[in-house]
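Model: You mentioned two targets. I'll fold them one after the other.
Researcher: Yes, keep them separate.
Model: Target one:
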Amino acid sequence: MRIALIQSNPLVGDLNGNRAALQQHCVQAAAQGAQLALAPELALWGYPPRDLLLRPALLEEQDRQLDQLCRELPPGLRLLAGVVEAQAEGLYNAMALVEAGHWRLVARKRLLPTYDVFDELRYFRSGEQPYWLDLPSDGGKLRLGLSLCEDLWVSPDILGYQPQDQDPVGDLQPFGIDLLINLSASPYGHGKRALRQQLASAAARRLQCPVLYVNQVGGNDELIFDGNSFVIAPNGALLCTLPCASSAVACWETPTPPHGSAPTAAAQPPHKQPSRARPRPGGALAGAGAGAAGLRPQMRLPPGPAGPQWRHRFSPGGLPGGGRPRGRAGPGPVDALPLQLPGFP
C-alpha cells in the first residue's frame, strides 16, 4: 500500500479553510498514487482549539466539513485524520476514516496531556482500549494500529519517568499490527525531533512493525509546530523524514502485507470500538459494515457559558475532590524554545 503523509498547516478554528487545504493535499496524494493519506491530530480544527470546543455550532460545522470532504475525496483514496468525537458523556480527541461517500470514527486518544502548554483534560475524555483497523491491500489486508500524539509517549527508559498507567503501544501487541499510525500536533522544543524519533523507534521494536508519524506545521498563538514527520522501520531505523517548518505531502510504500486473508474494508476488531455511522441519502449508514449496534447519540452541549458539567480546571494540587490529573507527569516542563530558531534542531 502506498501511504501519503500530509504535513499540513491548519489555522485554529477555520474548519472550512482547513478542510479546503486538506482536500488539496489529498489531491496531491492521489496524484502520487497514494491509496491512504494521513493527516495530523485535530486536522480540521488546528491545535490547540481550546474553548472553541465548547461551541456546539463548531462541532456541527466539523460534521458538515467531513461530509463535504468525503464527497470530494479523490477516487481510490482513504484518509485518516484527527477529529473531535461528540458523545452524550463528553468529547473525545479522536480519529476518523474518511472514504468516498462516508466517514466514521475509528479511534480515541487514550493519554491526554495536561501539563506545560497542554490542557486536554479540560475538554476531552480518555479512550480506554486499543484501537486497530484492517484495510484491503494488494489482495490481502493491512492491520493498522491507531494512536494519537501522546499515546506514543510511553517509554520510561527514554522519558526518564514513569508515564501514565495506560500503555497504548503495549496494548496493541496481541493483535498482530502491521503498521502503527500516530497522528500528532506536537509543538517544537529543543531536542524534540530526536525525542519523538526515539519514542517511535522504541514502539517499532516492541510491535515489530513500521511506525508512521505525522505532525502539523505552523504557528498558533505562542506555539510553533515544526512538522518533521517521519517513518521508522521495524528495527527502529529512520526510513524517511518530511521537511521542517514546511507543509508537505510525501508517500511511503509498505512492504508486502503478511496477512493473506480476503480483504475486508475497515473490519471491526473483536473488541468494542467506537463507531458512529451517520444517516446518508437513501437510508445507507456510513461504516455500517463496522457494526451500527455500537452507535450512541451525538452530544448536544447545554446552553450557557459554563458548558457541560464534566468540564473543569484543576489547581496545581490536583483535581476537585482530591483526584490527580492523568496527564503525563514529568520532572519539569518541556525544554524552553531557544532563541536561535533557524534549523530547528
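Model: Target two:
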Amino acid sequence: MFDFRIAQIFFLLLCILSTPGTAQSVAATPTTDSIAPILLTPFVLPPSPAAPQDVQTVLHISTGEWPPYLGEHLPHHGTVALLISEMMRQAGYQVQFHFLPWARAYYDTAAGRYDATAIWMQNNNRLNDYLFSGVLLETQLVLFHLKRQPLVWQTVSDLKNLELGGGFGYSYGAEFDQAVATGLLKISRVNTTEQNFRRLVAGRIDTFAEEIKVGYHILQHLPDELAQQITHHPTPLLRGENFLLFPKNLPNSARLKTLFNQQLTQAKISGQYQHILQRPPLTSAKTPMPEQKP
C-alpha cells in the first residue's frame, strides 16, 4: 500500500538536498574526527591598515629633578621635558620620562636601560659614553649670596678666601673645578640647593653657584623671610650648553639622535622652540625640592 506520508518526506528531502546553499552546508559539516582541529584553530583578524600609523613607539628617557626645566610633578614635567616630548612626537614617538637620582639616571642609561637621558653639559667622560644631540638648552650658573653681604669678584681666584657651598657631583666648569682640585678654593657640599640657601642665611657659607632659573624657582618654595635675604651676582660663573644624550651601546641611538636633531632644527627655525622655552614658569605646589644636578 502506497504511503503518502513517506512520499511527502522523501520529496522534502530531495528539495532540501537540491538547494545549493543548503547542500554546501551539509557537505561542509565536519565529521567527528575533524571537529577538534577546527575548534582549536585560532581566528585572527587581519591587521587594520591604519594600525601602524595610530600606534607610536614609546621612548624611555631618564632624568632628574631640575625645576623649572625638569620635574616629576611639574605640568608636562617641565619646559625641557615638554620640548623633548614635542620634538619626538613630531618624529613619531611618544616619550615616557623616568625621574631618578642624577647619578643613577646617567649610569643606568649608559648601560642601555633607557633610550636617552636629559639633560647634561658636555665633558670628556660623557663623550665616551654618549652621542650628544644638538644644543637643547643654554644655561648660566650664577653665585647666590646674601643681600647684606655684597659679593665682589671678577675671576675665580677672587673667591679663594670665601666659604663656598656646592652640591655633590656638581661641576662648575673646568676652571672652577681645577681650582677646587688644587686647593685654591675651599668648598663644602650638600645634597640640595635648598640646603645651600639655608646655609647662606645661617652664615655657614658665603656664596654658592646654581643655574639662575633653577635657583629662583627653588627660592619661590622657601619661606619669604628666607628668600627675601638672598640675591645673585650679575656676572655669570659659567655659561653652559645642555644636551639630550643617547647611549652609544644601543644600536638605535644614532638614528634617534638624527631624528631628534632634525626636529630640533625645524623647531628653532619655526619659532616653536622659543615659544616653549619662553612659557611662564611651570610650578606646582607638589614640586619637591630637587636633588642637586651633577
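Researcher: Noted. Anything on target two?
Model: Confidence is low (pLDDT under 50) at residues 18-54, 282-292.
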